[in-house]
């Protein structure tokens, strides 16, 4: 089974680890550079992206994370994790630290202007309807040609799931529903890459 890290600076670390285990991976928590080196792939949970950037810097993980993403490590970012993987952010703060990697513009707190949190039923990667939980979630404003759109959601038919090569991102929190299809999709990606 692939060893998949969960970045454990903040967010639903335990829930992601449980979903990864159900999807057939071996989950481990990542808080230090040496732990990052030991994983085949990484999940970046939700939380608050500006805080996560600061914590990554404080834990001396920012550069190691950027280097591993740049060198092709598969990564899956949920919500704040999606923001971390975006090449460009709308509504970010001055000096906000991210990793980048996916050629897209992500708007922070986009749905939050209308509804702080909500659930929607959506099709994820053609794998049937999925109940998605959004919490002060971003949406994807636009994507480059190399980015595959894996899901859209109401309100607004917004892009909420994307993939570019080894990088996967969703605006929503699949770790909260007990539905492991998104994690299974990621584990399959890791096995294929
Ligand atoms: N609003 C948060 C941010 O901008 C993301 C919310 C979440 O991860 N649930 O980072």
TrEMBL record:
E.C. number(s) listed in UniProt: 4.3.3.6, 3.5.1.2
Lineage: Bacteria, Bacillati, Actinomycetota, Actinomycetes, Streptosporangiales
Keywords tagged on the record: Glutamine amidotransferase, Hydrolase, Lyase, Pyridoxal phosphate
Name of the protein in its database record: Pyridoxal 5'-phosphate synthase subunit PdxT
Pfam family, one: SNO
Residues of the active site: 79, 173, 175
Reactions mediated catalytically: aldehydo-D-ribose 5-phosphate + D-glyceraldehyde 3-phosphate + L-glutamine = pyridoxal 5'-phosphate + L-glutamate + phosphate + 3 H2O + H(+); L-glutamine + H2O = L-glutamate + NH4(+)
Function: Catalyzes the hydrolysis of glutamine to glutamate and ammonia as part of the biosynthesis of pyridoxal 5'-phosphate. The resulting ammonia molecule is channeled to the active site of PdxS.
Family recorded in the similarity comment: Belongs to the glutaminase PdxT/SNO family.
Quaternary structure (record): In the presence of PdxS, forms a dodecamer of heterodimers. Only shows activity in the heterodimer.
GO molecular function per UniProt: glutaminase activity; pyridoxal 5'-phosphate synthase (glutamine hydrolysing) activity
Residues engaged in binding L-glutamine: 47-49, 108, 135-136
Annotated metabolic or biological route of this protein: Cofactor biosynthesis; pyridoxal 5'-phosphate biosynthesis
InterPro entries, per database record: Class_I_gatase-like, PdxT/SNO, PdxT/SNO_CS
One term under GO cellular component: glutaminase complex
GO BP terms in the entry: L-glutamine catabolic process; pyridoxal phosphate biosynthetic process; pyridoxine metabolic process
């Amino acid at each position: 089974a692939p060893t998949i890290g969960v970045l454990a600076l903040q967010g639903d670390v335990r829930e992601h680890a449980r979903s990864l285990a159900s999807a057939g991976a071996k989950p481990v928590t990542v808080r230090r550079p040496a732990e990052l080196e030991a994983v085949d792939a990484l999940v970046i949970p939700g939380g608050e992206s500006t805080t996560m950037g600061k914590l990554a810097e404080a834990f001396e993980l920012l550069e190691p994370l950027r280097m591993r993403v740049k060198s092709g490590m598969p990564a899956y970012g949920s919500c704040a994790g999606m923001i971390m993987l975006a090449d460009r952010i709308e509504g970010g703060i001055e000096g906000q630290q991210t990793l980048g990697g996916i050629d897209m513009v992500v708007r922070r707190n986009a749905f939050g202007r209308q509804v702080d949190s909500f659930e929607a039923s959506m099709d994820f990667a053609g794998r049937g309807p999925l109940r998605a939980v959004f919490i002060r979630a971003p949406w994807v404003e636009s994507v480059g040609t190399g980015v595959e759109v894996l899901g859209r959601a109401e309100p607004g038919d917004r892009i909420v799931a994307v993939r570019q090569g080894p990088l996967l991102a969703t605006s929503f929190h699949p770790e909260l529903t007990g539905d492991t299809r998104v994690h299974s999709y990621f584990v399959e990606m890791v096995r294929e890459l």
